[in-house]
């Protein structure tokens, strides 16, 4: 599919079309390195060959930096300048939030002139479904799942058959635990598109959401058999095994995904997570660093690097990684990143930087009130010798879970220490 400018003034670029067809042929032969070269040649020969760029992006054939480099090399005609902004919204969106939002806002205000049948028309991209689907994808990427879900719900009311919106909607619904929505979507997609991978991926997501991992794995596998280039199904396949702690099969799924999608850092990231789960921290660190090389702007990668450093007792390094994580997260912080703030506080406590640790524990409490945060804050006050505040927060932690052994034991010690401190102070009086 070419983006038509003016059929009378422009003919199809034959060179670009041939390159694109060669790319399709090599992809059908599963020679993805050659397919990537020919798709790249097609879009360079003619920037209006949108389908070549779509194949590169959807199949994760390029890394984040390679996508940016490709876009910067494209030569657009003056009247096609808006396409540069549109393409920049299609690629991986790991720039700062303000930069990405500015791109969307600028493009939504853009007026485009088209000339069907010699009649000049001006249209806007503000309500363009493809652009709004990209925006929803960005919200999902940032962890703003509710905003993503609301936007994709509106999009699917306008166009129920927009498959990219369907894919992002499924992902957001799964993150939010909307199993009923996943069930309805899966039924509709299987009825309308029984031969498409996304339909059976939706079924797999429904079963994954209700924790029936064997069923989920079966349907993720069916999705990959229908379309071996559908990256979400491969990730889901590995996750279904990982959820049952079947590490070897999970690794197999992730490694296949890493081989098929060199531009996607998630398979490598999940391999690292599996190694971390089995306490192979050095191997986990290596894979997290590989994921960072593929996508140097994903905050989740930095968070996992911090967790590994913490487990390896490299607390200074852990603090640096957690601080980098927070630097890459769009503000204000969402509840999704509460664990990162708590992890940073834990690492600071290990370095005996108690006041800084307390500050981050309090920031975490502003996001959500969890047992680990109250326990960490209480323990930090305890280490400082502030037994009164320590006792207060141990009680708050035990209010959430009265059976927590650590808080129960530490509360007893704090009460003993406080009474001992009181006796000593009376002795000096």
UniProtKB/TrEMBL annotation:
Sequence ranges of the TPR repeats: 197-230, 231-264, 299-332, 371-404
The record's SMART domains line, in alphabetical order, gives: TPR (SM00028)
- Pfam families in alphabetical order: TPR_12 (PF13424), TPR_8 (PF13181)
* Annotated keywords: Cell cycle, Cell division, Mitosis, Repeat, TPR repeat, Ubl conjugation pathway
Q: What is this protein called?
A: Anaphase promoting complex 6
- List the source organism: Artemisia annua (Sweet wormwood)
Q: From its record, what is one biological process in GO terms?
A: protein ubiquitination
Kindly list any coiled-coil regions of this protein: none
GO CC term, one of those recorded: anaphase-promoting complex
State the InterPro entries in the record. TPR-like_helical_dom_sf, TPR_rpt
What PANTHER family is this protein classified in?
CELL DIVISION CYCLE 16,23,27 (PTHR12558), CELL DIVISION CYCLE PROTEIN 16 HOMOLOG (PTHR12558:SF9)
């Amino acid at each position: 599919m070419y983006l038509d400018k003016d059929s009378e003034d422009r003919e199809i670029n034959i060179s670009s079309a041939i390159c694109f067809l060669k790319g399709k042929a090599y992809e059908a032969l599963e020679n993805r390195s050659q397919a990537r070269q020919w798709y790249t040649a097609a879009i360079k020969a003619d920037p209006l060959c949108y389908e070549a760029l779509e194949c590169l992006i959807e199949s994760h054939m390029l890394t984040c930096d390679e996508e940016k480099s490709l876009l910067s090399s494209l030569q657009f005609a003056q009247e096609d300048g808006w396409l540069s902004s549109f393409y920049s919204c299609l690629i991986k969106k790991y720039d700062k939030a303000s930069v990405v939002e500015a791109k969307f806002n600028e493009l939504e205000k853009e007026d485009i002139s088209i000339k069907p049948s010699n009649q000049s028309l001006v249209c806007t991209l503000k309500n363009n479904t493809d652009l709004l689907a990209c925006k929803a994808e960005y919200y999902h990427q940032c962890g703003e799942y509710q905003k993503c879900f609301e936007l994709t719900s509106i999009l699917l009311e306008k166009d129920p058959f927009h498959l990219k919106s369907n894919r992002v909607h499924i992902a957001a619904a799964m993150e939010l635990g909307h199993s009923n929505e996943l069930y309805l979507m899966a039924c509709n997609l299987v009825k309308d598109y029984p031969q498409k991978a996304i339909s059976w991926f939706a079924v797999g997501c429904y079963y994954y959401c209700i924790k029936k991992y064997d069923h989920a794995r079966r349907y993720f596998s069916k999705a990959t058999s229908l379309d071996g280039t559908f990256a979400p199904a491969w990730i889901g396949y590995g996750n279904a095994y990982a959820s049952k702690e079947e590490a070897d099969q999970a690794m197999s799924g992730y490694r296949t995904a890493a081989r098929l999608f060199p531009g996607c850092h998630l398979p490598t990231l999940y391999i690292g997570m599996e190694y971390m789960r089995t306490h192979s921290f050095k191997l986990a660190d290596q894979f997290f660093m590989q994921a960072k090389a593929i996508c140097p702007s994903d905050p989740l990668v930095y968070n996992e690097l911090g967790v590994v450093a913490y487990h390896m007792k490299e607390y200074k390094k852990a603090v640096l990684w957690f601080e980098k994580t927070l630097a890459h997260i769009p503000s204000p912080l969402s509840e999704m990143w509460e664990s990162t703030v708590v992890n940073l506080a834990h690492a600071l406590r290990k370095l005996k930087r108690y006041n800084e640790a307390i500050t981050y524990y309090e920031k975490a409490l502003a996001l959500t009130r969890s047992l680990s945060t109250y326990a960490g804050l209480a323990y930090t006050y305890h280490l400082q010798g502030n037994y009164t505040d320590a006792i207060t927060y141990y009680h708050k932690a035990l209010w959430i879970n009265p059976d927590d052994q650590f808080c129960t034991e530490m509360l007893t010690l704090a009460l003993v220490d406080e009474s001992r401190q009181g006796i000593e102070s009376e002795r000096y009086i």
